[in-house]
Amino acid sequence: MPELPEVETTRRGLCPLLVGRLVTGVTVREPRLRWPVPDDLGTVLTGQALRGIGRRAKYLLFQMDAGTLIAHLGMSGSLCVVDAGTPPGPHDHVDIAIEGGTLLRLRDPRRFGSLHWTADDPAGHPLLRELGPEPLGDAFDGRYLFRRSRGRRVAVKAFLMDSHIVVGVGNIYAAEALFAAGIHPARAAGRVGRERYERLAQAVRSVLAAAIQAGGTTLRDFKGGDGRPGYFQQTLSVYGRAGKPCPRCGTAIELTRQGQRATCHCPACQR
DNA sequence: CAACGGACCTGCCTGC
DNA sequence: TGCAGGCAGGTCCGTT
Fold first, then answer.
1. Is the pLDDT score of A222 beyond 60?
2. Quick one: fold of A142-265?
3. Which terminus in chain A has less CB density within 10 A, N or C?
4. How many CA atoms lie within 13 A of A91 on its CB side?
5. How would you classify the pairing of strands A50-56 and A23-28?
6. CA A150 to CA A147: how far, in whole Å?
7. Where are the domains of chain A?
8. Torsion on CA atoms A2, A197, A138, A51, rounded to nearest 10
9. Marked catalytic residue, from A30, A109, A261, A267
10. CA distance A42 to A85
């Protein structure tokens, strides 16, 4: 489910409901996520106030008095705020009880998500330390992509999805950005020119910004932190549209496979 | 160092 | 209708 726009939508939805409040307890029903939920999470969090919610890549950063709770939603995770006493569903693995009678509830059917605690600067956490720049930040542009791609023979789509290069560009938005820039997804990253990387960087920014604006993509059942669904799926040009006409030229969108990942592109518009 | 495949899980959809 | 098989939005890790 979550790509960067979904995570950002979740962050924005949760902020007004949680920031400034005290954690009064933690219930872990299923600690076996991608990494085990820390044993002492309840002990650590209880009694601390939430000072703010940040984001780095697809990690949500819950800034507490004494450190940061780092959350990743994996492929199927979601966070929502419910009234205390709401019975947990089958995959509601963790509840963080909030002062005032609500719960921050983590649901994650596939359990690819994770929770981590750090008392230090989260930027130095092993999971965050090696990450590339934020796609909507100043450090990300065409010049940067051009420089990092020299000599790389990996497909440009895989290059764009490599979190060491740039974070937050998942399968959907990589496909959409490459379409917008007119670049074939299988082209070697090192064989894309400076001009085209300018267009690609711009496309990444605008596709992500538009998705955030729209409240995130809904593939199945994405809900923002406030429980409202995202509506971006209606504007996808190539992703999930195999066999349908390209919105620009009408040619049938092609479905191919790169490694394990399905990829859609227009064989006429993308070179 | 770069590239690739495997691994982690469950739910949902398709087709037999 | 039931069931097997394939597929899904992420990303870390080990091997070549």
1. no
2. Helicase, Ruva Protein; domain 3 (1.10.8)
3. C
4. 14
5. unpaired
6. 6
7. 4-129, 142-265
8. 10
9. A261
10. 18
Q: What token pair was written down for A15?
A: 């902020």
Element at A83 (helix H, strand E): strand A78-83
Q: So what's the pLDDT on residue A234?
A: 60
A135 is written with which tokens?
A: 């796609």
Q: Is A228 a catalytic residue?
A: no
Overall residue count recorded for chain A in this entry: 271
Six token digits for residue A18:
């949680």
Mean of pLDDT values over A225-254: 78
From the candidates A11, A56, A58, A223, which is the catalytic residue? A58
Q: Is the CB of A260 under 7 A from strand B?
A: yes
pLDDT of A247 higher than 50: yes
The answer to whether A248 CB is within 7 Å of strand B is no
Q: Can you read off the two tokens belonging to residue A91?
A: 């995959």
Would you give the DSSP letter of residue A86? Answer: P
Name the pTM for this structure: 0.92
A110 CA, C5 C1': Å apart = 18
Point out the least confidently predicted range of A133-137, A202-206, A231-235: A231-235
Choose which CATH entry (3.60.15.10, 3.20.190.10, 2.40.30.60, 3.40.190.10) describes domain A4-129.
3.20.190.10
Residues 225-244 of A with CB under 7 A from strand C: none
